[in-house]
Amino acid sequence: MTGPFLSLIILGFDGPTLPTEEADLLARGLGGVALFARNLVDAEQVRDLCRQVREAARGLPPPIISVDQEGGRVQRLRRLCPQRPTAAELGAAGASACREAGLAIGRDLRDLGFNLDFAPVLDVDTNPANPIIGDRAFGRDPVSAAAGALAFLEGLESVGVAGCGKHFPGHGDASADSHLELPVIPAEAGVLDTREAWTFEAAVRAGIRMIMTAHCLYPNLDPDVPATLSPGIVDGRLRGRLGFEGCVITDDLGMKAIADRFEPAQILERGLRAGIDLFLQCGAKGEGRVLAEALERGVRDGSLPRDRLEAAADRVSRFRCSLP
Length: 324
Fold this sequence. Notes:
The protein has 13 helices and 11 strands. It has one domain (3-321): TIM Barrel (Alpha-Beta Barrel), CATH 3.20.20.300. The protein has helices at residues 3-6, 20-27, 43-56, 87-93, 95-112, 142-157, 189-194, 196-205, 231-241, 256-259, 264-274, 287-301, 306-321, and strands at residues 9-11, 32-34, 64-67, 69-71, 74-75, 116-117, 162-163, 165-168, 210-213, 247-249, 279-281. The two termini are 27 Å apart. A 6-stranded parallel beta sheet has the order 7-6-3-2-1-11, with helices on one face. It has a 3-stranded parallel beta sheet with strand order 8-9-10. Helix 4 (87-93) packs across helix 5, helix 5 (95-112) packs parallel to helix 6 and helix 11 (264-274) packs across helix 12 (287-301).
């Protein structure tokens, strides 16, 4: 029986309407969808698309309908919603400004039909040469980064839109873009403990429900695989040391940092053993369907660990049942 385990996948697709294949997967239990600018025309069309997703999953827990809407450089709804400042600008303006921005973005998303925002960034802006984080972080030190991010999260979730903290165990010190290559972050474990881990620990204490992993290599934590596939980092540090009990989701599996090194079946098997609950595949050319097929094969042939599948499906079900 693979239906309950399809809930472990969130996928992207092309175009302004829900394709038949994705609708069928949603009816069979798919966890949800991630929408991008390629899916968005105007407010009425987006509301209708979100209705299509919900209707396809009728009778099941609410499907996850997600988007990246941080503010600054990362605003998928740029054409449909007011432009929001960068996290760095918000952090400098203080917690009240961060909370108000989260509230405003949450209202925008709720009005259109979304129930999950892949925000806030919990990374610390520690490397001026970082090509991917920079002003997406709320601060250059753990205290200010956490304060701004958690105020933003409070505003977002106050109107019923779930947030997702990213990118564990910390992407701020990278000097490469994980969309294009595998960043190597050579920081010592002690530095990661007192700097990057501080913001995530604060988020866990605040009750954050979802955390996204980084497709980065941390040689002093695990020299062999990116954080997304590392049991020592996900199970050991995030769940064990920080006590996180919510959903752990991958960053987009189409990013070259991971897609160039691992096949879908390997990602599923290694990710589950590491402690991943949700696998995010944002591709527009059917990559999500390929991942779903790999999952179904792995369930049938027993190559995916049953205990990990069941634990992940339970966490995802609880998360979905908390959504509007």
